[in-house]
Write a structure and sequence with these properties.
Distance between the termini: 27 Å
Largest sheet: none
Strand content: under 5%
Number of strands: 0
């Protein structure tokens, strides 16, 4: 539905930001990132995040990265989803168990269970895996 609108949506967003009084919300950033991800405009996503980080105009939140994880998984790019998870620290966010659970869920949902298991095996000592984490992996292997 939005796979061809990424560049146009980004330009519109930049245009709208120039208006006095317009303050983009978390929802507007999530929508833009989702549209850019659906159109596989991943470099624009990272440019947008870098701009936000440099300007300090908006505090990034984990939910924006969850949208990025989903976009990479839908694009059949699980390794890039893992790289996005690892890049959270570059944007001032320390990945949590909840972020890991979201990434594992999205990977398992798209049948990238092996990639999810490899990630889990690498990071399980850094995070406190919960029942939810194990349930996501077990369900992924069972599907």
């Amino acid at each position: 539905r939005t796979k061809d609108l990424g560049f146009s949506a980004h330009r519109f967003f930049l245009w709208a930001k120039r208006f006095p009084g317009f303050e983009p919300s978390v929802s507007s950033y999530k929508i833009l990132v989702d549209v850019l991800g659906s159109s596989r405009q991943f470099p624009l996503i990272w440019d947008l995040l870098a701009e936000v980080r440099e300007n300090g105009s908006f505090e990034l939140c984990p939910e924006i990265f969850w949208v990025i994880f989903g976009a990479y998984c839908r694009a059949n790019l699980p390794n890039d989803a893992v790289r996005a998870f690892n890049r959270m620290v570059d944007f001032g966010l320390r990945p949590s168990s909840n972020d890991l659970d979201h990434l594992l869920y999205l990977m398992c949902k798209r049948k990238f269970v092996k990639h999810g298991q490899e990630l889990f095996d690498k990071v399980k000592r850094q995070f406190a895996p919960s029942v939810k984490t194990y349930s996501i992996l077990i369900r992924g292997w069972g599907d």
